[in-house]
Specification:
Blueprint (H helix, E strand, L loop, with lengths): L1 H21 L3 H21 L3 H29 L1
Length: 79
């Protein structure tokens, strides 16, 4: 059963990553990129690495997305 969950999560990550690439708006791409990070959190947790999962959740999906969105806001004001 765990193998099916891992495979489904991996397929979901690939689909969300593809959706991130084909988005027209950069903000949408950043949100989908956060989804990839959250999928990685699930995989790390399933592979019994909770410390790495927590780090990925805080830095990769949380702070990284916040920084990207702030940068996009500032770029929009200058353009």
């Amino acid at each position: 059963m765990t193998g099916f969950i891992i495979l489904a999560t991996f397929v979901g990550i690939v689909i969300v990553a593809f959706a991130s690439v084909v988005q027209k708006r950069l903000a949408d791409s950043v949100v989908f990129l956060m989804g990839v990070g959250l999928g990685n959190v699930v995989l790390f947790f399933l592979f019994k690495a909770p410390d790495v999962a927590l780090t990925e959740a805080v830095i990769g999906a949380g702070i990284g997305t916040f920084i990207f969105l702030i940068a996009l806001k500032h770029l929009g004001e200058q353009a």
